[in-house]
């Protein structure tokens, strides 16, 4: 019976984490470049059930010893949220008219991969899809969180003022001359990226320069931002499903609790 308590409790914890993740997705539905997190729920390793019996030793006394017998069946020991993985699909672009807003638009990006801007994070090079950029006090191009945007050579980009244009290949043109090219990286397997905060990502290895990947097609669109890829109606439906699953495990836990109460306070009196 105690095994059932642990199984129901693990289900409640897993559904609670899933609900928290969905609520965070919904809260960031209007955050530019935000990518929805997905939960991967896995089962704990199954246990092989055994019964305790007695075996007889082949001696004159025919001594008996405890013996474990397999019941040829197994039982699950509960579930857990194994990991959170971002869904890095393309979000809709919307026009802002701001020169420092530069959206990324995927034209031909292999399934499972993604392109991202390179920025100078706290622990080295990081990546983001949020093109909501601005200029700091020194005229350097930075993200809305204050991280320096890098060019294709890994250097910061200093423009001085907002009088510049960006073509569809990421080249920044100011006073009629190309001054820098936005650093865009390509992750062939987006699941290897780790999310930091809301819209920043890290990778264990250095990603490829997206401009040099054969067959890869994307555009940088000035004056536009990429909206989040959160499907609000689907997220609300998933939240209700997770809540109902939490309730079902909760009722199961209460049923076990009542059974234990009877075993201790009523049967124990006999």
UniProtKB/TrEMBL annotation:
PROSITE patterns tied to this protein: FLAGELLA_BB_ROD
Superkingdom assignment: Bacteria
Residues annotated as domain Flagellar hook protein FlgE/F/G-like D1: 117-172
Chain ranges of the Flagellar basal-body/hook protein C-terminal domain: 221-265
Sorted UniProt keywords: Bacterial flagellum, Cell projection, Cilium, Flagellum
Domain Flagellar basal body rod protein N-terminal stretches: 5-35
TM ranges: none
Pfam families for the chain: Flg_bb_rod, Flg_bbr_C, LlgE_F_G_D1
GO BP annotations, alphabetical order: bacterial-type flagellum-dependent swarming motility
GO cellular component terms, semicolon-separated: bacterial-type flagellum basal body
Localization of this protein: Bacterial flagellum basal body
Family in the record: Belongs to the flagella basal body rod proteins family.
PANTHER family registered for this protein in UniProt: FLAGELLAR BASAL-BODY ROD PROTEIN FLGG, FLAGELLAR PROTEIN
Record's protein name: Flagellar basal body rod protein FlgC
């Amino acid at each position: 019976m105690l095994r059932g308590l642990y199984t129901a409790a693990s289900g409640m914890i897993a559904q609670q984490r899933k609900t928290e993740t969905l609520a965070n997705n919904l809260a960031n539905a209007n955050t530019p470049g935000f990518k929805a997190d997905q939960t991967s729920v896995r089962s704990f390793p199954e246990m092989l059930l055994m019964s305790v019996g007695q075996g007889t030793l082949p001696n004159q006394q025919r001594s008996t010893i405890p013996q474990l017998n397999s019941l040829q069946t197994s039982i699950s020991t509960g579930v857990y949220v194994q990991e959170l993985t971002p869904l890095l699909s393309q979000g809709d672009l919307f026009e802002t008219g701001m020169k420092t807003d530069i959206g990324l638009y995927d034209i031909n990006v292999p399934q499972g991969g993604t392109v991202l801007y390179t920025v100078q994070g706290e622990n080295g090079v990081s990546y983001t899809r949020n093109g909501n950029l601005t200029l700091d006090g020194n005229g350097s191009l930075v993200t809305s969180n204050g991280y320096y945007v890098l060019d294709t050579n890994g250097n910061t980009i200093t423009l001085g003022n907002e009088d510049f244009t960006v073509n569809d290949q990421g080249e920044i043109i100011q006073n009629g001359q190309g001054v820098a090219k936005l650093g865009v990286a390509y992750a062939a397997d987006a699941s290897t990226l780790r999310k930091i905060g809301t819209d920043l990502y890290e990778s264990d290895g250095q990603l490829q320069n997206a401009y040099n990947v054969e067959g890869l097609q994307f555009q940088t669109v000035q004056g536009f931002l990429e909206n989040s890829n959160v499907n609000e109606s689907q997220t609300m439906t998933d939240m209700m499903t997770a809540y109902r699953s939490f309730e079902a495990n909760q009722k199961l836990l209460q049923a076990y609790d009542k059974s234990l109460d009877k075993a201790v306070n009523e049967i124990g009196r006999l």
